[in-house]
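B., you asked whether I could sanity-check this one before it goes into the benchmark set. Here's the sequence:
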Amino acid sequence: MPDADELVANALAAVRGTDVRQAERQLDQLMVGTGAADGTTAVDAALLRRLVRGLGRLWPRGWQPVDVDRITSRRLDARAARLVRAAMAAQRRDQTEPVPAWWDDQLRDLAATETGADRSVLAGWASREGLDRADALRAAVDTLALVESLPPIAVLRPPPGTSGAALPRTAGSARSGSPMLDRVRALLAKAESTTFPAEAEALTGKAQELIARHSIDEALLAAGSERGDLPGGVRLSTDTPYAGAKALLVQEVAAANRCEAVWSDDLGFATVLGWPADLVAVELLYTSLLVQATAAMLRGRAERRPGSGRRTKVWDESFLNAFALRIGERLRAATEAATDAADQATAETVGAERLLPVLAARGEAVRERLDTLFPGVTRHRLSVRDAEGWSSGTSAADRASLDVGGGRKPRQVPGRPDPR
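And here's what the prediction gave me:
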């Protein structure tokens, strides 16, 4: 009789194949177990060990806990994602190498903090999900197959166990609990909730003003230090529906805040590279604008002429693409205005222009980071298939809440299909 590790390996190989009957037979073997008194618990422990091992191989290949959680939810379901969280918690419990604080923050945000013996993690998860053993084993094997199939992606931050000298030091995130960020969040929350476009615009414009001033202050402070940081990065979800329009919105917001963005279509996220304060700005603004764009799109649907004959999906895509590009223009203008004002104030105080060369150097560092992590990145042309949706989206963006720009097409990792 095969041991537990062999049973898991056989089931995994069968699930990856095309013979459905063979896959079911191997899952039946998992159900039976090794034939020993503790055969089923041995199978559970073997599944968890292999899942933990698979996760451990992902970390040096660029994946972070939030990335694995997101793609598991996207390609499988929320139930599988909760199993991955339990496995990440089990792995963290046994880690002996150094673990950065941001890693534990991600696990905490995902509620991946469970503990327990290897033999009880799978059973505990199945019980919480209300799964019988057959369904639990099938879901666990599917989850394992996904984890072991994920490709390498850009390493944005040194993973657990990596010494400081092994990878270039990258800038982390700005303090998430700062008073300035709290004010920005409050302004954006009001902008999302108001039903008056003019009020939303004023609130978002004020939020962008605070963000721009903070970014400039951070740039000037960093220019006077001896630190050799590299720009950092974050990944933002661009899940379906309308993934291409979401990627375009990420790029517009990123460009307005002196960041660079690359869309990985098949993985469901956009990678944004930049300096800490700017990355925080992109995250906050993108999240808020996506809410505002979706609300405006739904209102626009209701205002469409009866019997227009246009498919809703095509209209929605055109609406959201137009919204993103117009918002980018407005954001760019606001950033330029804030920069000009700050440069003039700096020149009057210091006696010579100082800000613009600092910003130029930081922008060049971000572009160099882009070239290092994403060599050969390509651009794809945006297609507009509904003039009415485009016009409505542009008008909605003119009424919406924001200010800081960038009017470019979404970049993609080479080989990704053109979003049409």
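One thing to flag: DSSP finds 15 helices and five strands in the chain. Otherwise nothing jumped out at me.
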